[in-house]
Every structure is written in structure tokens, then in C-alpha cells.
Design a protein that fits this description.
single chain; 136 residues; mainly beta; five-stranded mixed β-barrel
Amino acid sequence: MKSIVIAGNIGKNAEVRQAGQSKVTGWPVAVDDGWGDKKTTIWFDCNWFGQRGEKVAQYIQKGGKITVSGELSKREHEGKTYLTVNVNDVTLQSKAEGGGQSSDQGGYGSGGQPSGGGYADGVGSDEIPFAPVMLI
């Protein structure tokens, strides 16, 4: 198994599609590599199979920041090599209020339970697939 964790920018809104008997949620993630004049972008195609991916799809939107962990693989298509991640866990990122620093907005892990902190008042665990983390 080739495990990988990437953090980058979501390149396109997540799409849910049928794959045989199950559904798969897919989206691209752009990760910067290098710096200065030698800075390049590496694109990863992320695929999350099953119901967990479907539930999180609405939150994975173009331009957002995300951390993804899963199994690295590659595929060939028309002479090009594409890097893919079969997703096990996702953590959505957003800007902290009042500043430019990023803050963790919780994840939705492979155990089916949120990996973030507590829920906002009045919101049940079956209403959102991840929980905001309280910063102190």
C-alpha cells in the first residue's frame, strides 16, 4: 500500500457518479511544489468510494483548501500519467475569522465518525458530515 497525505486547493466541485454497484465522489486537488521561479503545480485526482463521499460532496467546492489522505495510485490515458488518490479521510480547511491563518474545520474519517471537535449548538451529528473545531 502506498499511503499519501496531500494538502492543496480544490480544482473543481466534487462530482458523484455511478461506478458499478456503488457511487464514487471525485474531485481534483492542486498541490504546489517548489518555490520561486521553479514553482510548479501537481494535480491529484481524488476518488472517494461509497456513501461517506456522497455526504461530503456538497462541501468540496472549487477554490477551497483541503487535506486528503489515502492510497496513491496512477493511471495512464492518451499518453499521459495521472496521479490518483483513493481517499480514506478528508479535512476541509477555511480562513479563520479576522485573520489570514487557516484553521481546521474537521474531517470525516474512515471510521465513519467525524474526526473534528464539538458540534455547533442545535446541530446533530447526522445533519453534517464533519464538525467544526473550537479554537481557544
